[in-house]
Amino acid sequence: MAPAVERITLFKIPDEAARDRVLEQYKVLAKTAVKDGKPYIVSAAAGPSFPDPRNKGYNLSVKTTFASLEDMKYYDTECEAHKALKAVVGPVREDVLTTYFESVL
């Protein structure tokens, strides 16, 4: 079996109330994201970043795990729950950084 795909997304969202709305939408996404009628996100974690100069202003951190690269691509292009999340995030984010990988550990 192929290793899972780990995805890290960092946001710069200056307004605290907006960050809270984004986090609430991530909770909705975790409960409603489906592919072929079934949940497909292996795990999701999100929260405010601890203040630290190394985070370069990114103040909201998210980690999502997918069983395959195909599932992550579905998330990016077709998932209705992710589309709803992007509608909430888009107007309030100053910047976003996303990376993904298969763990060698």
Automatic annotation (TrEMBL):
PROSITE patterns: S_R_A_B_BARREL
InterPro entries on file: Dabb, Dimeric_a/b-barrel
SMART domains: Dabb
The Stress-response A/B barrel domain, residue ranges: 5-101
Signal sequence bounds: none
Descriptive protein name: Stress-response A/B barrel domain-containing protein
Coiled coil: none
UniProt organism field: Aspergillus aculeatus (strain ATCC 16872 / CBS 172.66 / WB 5094)
Domain of life, source organism: Eukaryota
Pfam families: Dabb (PF07876)
